[in-house]
Specification:
about 475 residues, alpha+beta, 2 domains, 5-stranded antiparallel β-sheet, 3-stranded antiparallel β-sheet, 12 strands
Length: about 475
């Protein structure tokens, strides 16, 4: 629980406010008292905190939590004599008392910023969240029921481990999405993006299964496939509904330090999609006479046209979802979208390895078991080089997913460096006596506890000792708990 903390502004992923003796930035979904970054309680500190906040927050989502109190001049004496105390007042004085810019809010003739969709919390058990989670749960139940009846050609998924595992992974991810949506808050957004990524990428797989029926005849369709398709539709609808309930961030411009990993992530997505198409299965046939023949199978473009359309849809969806995840801000929510793309593709790799372990019947090559025994036919099953290339790119996607979860996107002892200069998205501090046009930097939030006083004042903060020369830089080396230590 946070004590003596007043949050003034909140965005899609972060919030800014005032602690007892510092300005800080917290994760919007966290109740931890320690901020991600903090600054000294001075005008320069507020300027640095605000610039950092607007640099890392999704544009257009920042909204005031509560109107900040109007600034009033602090009462400063030459030095607090024994027995005298400073009058309670704001954290710092007005322009007549301190040098530097005056931090004013929007001018009277400027429109107040419109409240963002994420400004007020949405209950995790609201009607919309319950409906979205209910659709996902219904889809999972239907998908689970579809594992046991005939799926394609009379065989059920439960009878084919190589086909069963990917579908179980789909259902597990959608079930996790439903639980996260019910929990509400940031977890609702994570669950929505996870389910959405899963639904987009798996559309192609289900379409390819339906394409087998389109090309081979309706006699191939089983109740399992029908239940699976309806289950996918319910999960997709629930994911979209949850996504529309609450702002889940959006596409943003990556920072300079993030550009390299973002490019690598997109290249990994392209490599995974390209390596998905070639043949993965390799069969080496030997007979008693010593003759050997090597065959490959599984090329995406060697299938009937409707199946090819489904496979191509998978490749296109994978690249699109990964690209959106790489540019998503806050980036930790983009990681949820990326996870929704990785899980079904990892399921395909696991399925291929299970198929290798199952062995191959000679009937797959038009040879009866009796004929195979007569000629001494043996079949060795393996995977091609294209499969291992696919796995390498898939590992790169997983590594990128881990990168998206590390600082500065989560609390850490060593936050990223401050922006080197103002940009189009970061408002500069206003000149003395002026305010910025449009969404300007508001006045610094105040508290009733003074932060300055005589050296004998034991309540004075200790952040002055060892503070960096640049007062707008975050005080990384001093924990908020230490700020109450007497000087």
């Amino acid at each position: 629980m946070r004590e003596n903390v007043t949050i003034s502004y909140r965005g899609a992923g972060y919030e800014i406010g005032r602690g007892e003796h510092f300005y800080g930035i917290w994760a919007a979904s966290s109740s931890q008292p320690q901020p991600l970054e903090w600054w000294p309680p001075t005008p320069e500190g507020w300027s640095g905190a605000w610039s950092r906040f607007t640099a890392i927050e999704t544009p257009g989502t920042i909204a005031p939590v509560s109107p900040p109190p109007a600034p009033a001049p602090a009462v400063y004496g030459p030095a607090d004599a024994p027995g005298q105390t400073s009058a309670p007042g704001p954290a710092f004085a007005g322009p007549a008392d301190l040098p530097g810019p005056v931090f004013a809010g929007p001018a009277a003739d400027e429109p107040a910023p419109a409240p963002a969709a994420d400004a007020s919390p949405v209950s995790g058990r609201s009607a919309g969240a319950l409906a979205a989670a209910g659709l996902l749960a219904a889809g999972v139940v239907l998908g689970f029921a579809g594992l046991f009846p005939s799926y394609l050609g009379g065989a059920s998924l439960a009878q084919q481990p190589a086909e069963l595992v990917p579908h179980v992974l789909y259902l597990a991810a959608w079930a996790a999405s439903a639980v996260l949506i019910l929990l509400g808050g940031t977890r609702l957004r994570i669950g929505a993006l996870l389910g959405l990524g899963m639904s987009i990428v798996t559309f192609g797989f289900f379409f390819a299964d339906a394409g087998t029926v389109m090309s081979g005849g309706t006699h191939l369709i089983g109740a399992g496939l029908v239940l699976g398709l309806i289950g996918w539709l319910a999960c997709a609808a629930g994911s979209v509904m949850a996504f529309r309930l609450r702002s889940a961030g959006g596409i943003g411009k990556p920072q300079g330090d993030d550009m390299g990993p973002v490019v690598m992530l997109m290249l990994a997505a392209l490599g995974t999609a390209i390596a998905f198409a070639p043949s993965w299965d390799r069969y080496v046939l030997h007979n008693a006479a010593g003759a050997t023949q090597t065959l490959t199978a599984g090329n995406a473009f060697a299938n009937p046209a409707p199946v090819i359309v489904g496979d191509v849809a998978v490749m296109v969806a994978l690249v699109a979802v990964v690209a959106a995840a790489a540019l998503w801000r806050p980036i930790r929510l983009g990681a949820a979208l990326l996870a929704g793309a990785i899980i079904p593709m990892a399921g395909q790799a696991i399925s291929a390895l299970i198929g290798v372990g199952e062995g191959t019947s000679p009937t797959q090559f038009g040879v009866s078991p009796a004929q195979a025994a007569q000629i001494g036919l043996t079949i060795n099953t393996g995977v091609t080089a294209a499969f291992w290339i696919y796995c390498a790119f898939l590992v790169a996607l997983i590594a990128s997913f881990a990168w998206m979860l590390i600082p500065p996107h989560s609390a850490a002892a060593q936050p990223p460096r401050m922006p080197q200069g103002p940009s189009a998205d970061v408002p500069s501090p206003p000149a003395p006596g002026h305010s910025l046009p449009g969404p300007s930097m508001p006045g610094a939030p105040m508290t009733s506890a003074p932060v300055t006083g005589a050296p004998a004042d034991a309540a004075a903060p200790a952040q002055v000792v060892g503070a960096p020369a640049d007062a707008t830089a975050p005080v990384h080396a001093i924990a908020p708990a230490d700020l109450t230590t007497p000087a």
